[in-house]
Amino acid sequence: MDKVNKYQQAIIDYLNYYKQEMYSRDPSGVETQVVADKENHHYQLVRLGWSDGRHVYYCPLHFDIKDGKVWVQLNNTEEMVGDELINRGVAKSDIVLGFYHESMRGYTGFAEA
What we know:
With 113 residues, this protein is α+β, with helices and mostly antiparallel strands. It has one domain (3-107): XisI-like (TATA-Binding Protein, 2-Layer Sandwich), CATH 3.30.310. The protein has helices spanning 3-23, 81-87; strands at 31-37, 42-51, 54-66, 69-75, 95-97.
């Protein structure tokens, strides 16, 4: 399995795990979707539906794979997603915390780009 396919599977596994752990017992009726655009390498966890008469659309997690690296574009959770990806076989040197400005990424312990 090449690196991109390995990383893609690690991301999808993590999104499904997080969905199950955090939202499987959610009584609100809000749907949780794992969105995986495997061709263009975009992956998200999305919450959508209606709750208490209000429309819900929320993205807790968003990952991309660019140039062989996993970019964490958004992490609206309390989870250390970089560590979760490492545990699933993604090299630390291939994880970019894209939600940090490029001038700050050198301090994260992960890849700068």
